[in-house]
Design brief:
Number of strands: 6
Helix content: 40-55%
Strand content: 5-15%
Number of domains: 1
Order of helices and strands: HEEHHEEEHHEHHHH
Bound molecules: zinc ion
Strand order of the largest sheet: 2-4-5-3
Oligomer: single chain
Radius of gyration: 20 Å
Largest sheet: 4 strands, mixed
Distance between the termini: 47 Å
């Protein structure tokens, strides 16, 4: 009897694990803003040519949201390199120099939108000084920010691209919140009206 309930417990646990895997399509970024000790030296001085379009897109979006520190974004080289098993990292050196390193194997398996999402997240750390923001948008299952420590699915990012950019650069989540709630209301008006 004891053995049976143990087996049932194991099976339930396994089932739960499989369900989690199938539901979650985000990528855990872990601790990816890393302060390097004194004596560590930045590995690169310029950005890899194939990554320049993503950095330019970040700058363009940054300017569109009223940013003015473009020169300091240019001071952050973005390259492929040893990310210590992580997808990407923002390294901050003791002299305040910064750089972003990206895992090439991960990169090669991603769409350009998801690549953009990673670069925006890492430059969110390195250029905007943002830390992780791990909550969900109220009454939804959407990340409240590109700065979530789990990189959201391409689908979620595409659905609310402009509101996610707005939140990243202004730190104001209201536009995202309204956009998501509007979308949920359009999907299921009865569910939303009954919850009000
Ligand atoms: Zn991060």
């Amino acid at each position: 009897m004891k053995l049976n309930s143990y087996n049932l417990y194991r099976q339930l646990l396994l089932l739960w694990g499989v369900m989690l895997l199938s539901v979650s399509c985000g990528t855990d970024l872990g601790v990816d803003m890393i302060y390097k000790s004194a004596g560590s030296i930045r590995q690169y001085q310029v950005t890899n040519q194939s990554l320049v379009p993503y950095v330019n897109r970040f700058k363009e979006r940054y300017l569109a949201h009223g940013g003015s520190l473009v020169a300091s974004i240019d001071d952050i080289p973005v390259n492929f390199g040893d990310t210590n098993e992580k997808v990407g990292v923002c390294l901050i050196y003791s002299n305040d120099q910064r750089e972003v390193l990206v895992n090439l194997d991960w990169w090669n398996g991603q769409s350009s939108r998801r690549r953009e999402l990673l670069i925006f997240h890492e430059l969110g750390h390195c250029a905007l000084g943002r830390e992780h923001q791990d909550n969900k948008v109220e009454k939804s299952n959407f990340s409240s920010s590109i700065m979530n420590s789990v990189l959201m699915s391409e689908r979620d990012y595409r659905m609310f691209l402009a509101p996610y950019h707005f939140e990243l650069f202004t730190r104001d989540g209201d536009v995202l919140l309204s956009a998501i709630h509007q979308e949920l209301a359009d999907d299921d008006p009865i569910a939303v009206s009954s919850s009000q």
